[in-house]
Amino acid sequence: MNVVLFKPSQRPAALGAPPEPSRRDIAGVPVAAMTRDEALALIEHAFDGGRHLHLAYCNANLVNIAARDAALRERLAGFLILPDGIGVDIASRLLYGAPFPANLNGTDFTPTILAARKQRLRVMLLGGRPGVAERAAARLRTDYPQHRFSVLSHGYFGPDEETALLARLAHERPDLLLVAFGNPRQEQWIADHIDARHCAVAAGIGALFDFLAGEVARAPETFRVLRIEWTYRLWLEPRRLWRRYVVGNPAFLLRVLRQKLTRPTPEGA
Asked: Is Transferase there in the keyword field (predicted)?
């Protein structure tokens, strides 16, 4: 079930649709360069009956994974990909001479989407360990009582259960589907299984359920302001995350530097 893709110049413009964002190639991943309000406008348009939207958040780790996986890069071409974290901002400065207009990470931008929407949204949660999505949904009901939250499943369903889950999703068709499988499984699953029959917007949101449910502590405000939240996560879970950050961050910077050397004048700067 693949989304039909168009180049920005080929995509049919719906009446009143927001303009398509410009995109910056970060080591093979096309990341949208847009403000928070511009991103909200595209998502609101999808909620209001515009084109079905797949949403991803790109950090250095996703770039590293995609660099080794051509099939993932092809899938990501059908997503609105928003910039997440200081790594892609550094890459944008090196390649395009300026950072992205906004840091639109899924942990902070998902609540922004919910707070900005005045009309009632039907939001469905999928992923996490058993029980985590239910606790995350309870927190969301408290924080955003104007919306309706329900849980489709934890993230450990088997292939024999998947057909029933997709049928329920198509029957209920929420406005927003939040998928928390982690990179790259969540993006692969959305690309392969979700289309306009299932929801208006499908977003891969990583560890958001764990934060909402209190499974994982969010970094203190100082770390977030300095945009070094990754160091706090590494300190909390060194055995699980050392390869992603200690090995992955230098590998990401090398990829970006290689791109800069081979494409000294990138298109769309």
From this structure: yes
